[in-house]
UniProtKB/TrEMBL annotation:
GO terms for molecular function: DNA-binding transcription factor activity. One of its GO terms (cellular component) is cytosol. InterPro entries: Tscrpt_reg_Rrf2, WH-like_DNA-bd_sf, WH_DNA-bd_sf. It comes from the Bacteria. Pfam families: Rrf2 (PF02082). It comes from Microbaculum marinum. This is Rrf2 family transcriptional regulator.
Amino acid sequence: MKRDSRLSGILHVLLHMAERDGPVTSEELAGIMRTNPVVIRRVMAGLRAQGYVRSEKGHGGGWTLARDLSTVTLRDVYEGIGSPSLFAIGNRSEAPGCAVEQAVNAALDSSLREAETLLLASFGEVTLQRLSADFHRRLEERRAARPCGEVHEH
């Protein structure tokens, strides 16, 4: 099963945006993420609806952050992109009347709900500011290790 990397991708985009002084176009962000600008616009629209980003049309327009990094959590972004499924595993539903399937599904449902609750609580504790600080720490470590040359690689 293919992994859903939208959350990771949009967090990456938001951190790049935080490093810019002005608007960033969908085309620029798509280049960073090696995707289509339409994909960027679609995902960013959900974040705009939640008030996390703004968009300006026309020459010099693009996407900008609408809130301070310290006020936006991973959970906010997760919900802003539509709360995709957190887990790739799930229940069988081929024989809903089967007592074995019912027992297995009940156990899995319970465990998955508990895990989701813990994961979402953890997401709620991590701000974009914390991610940005970690990025800058890593960047400084790379600079110290390699004083010459490019340090932010894709």
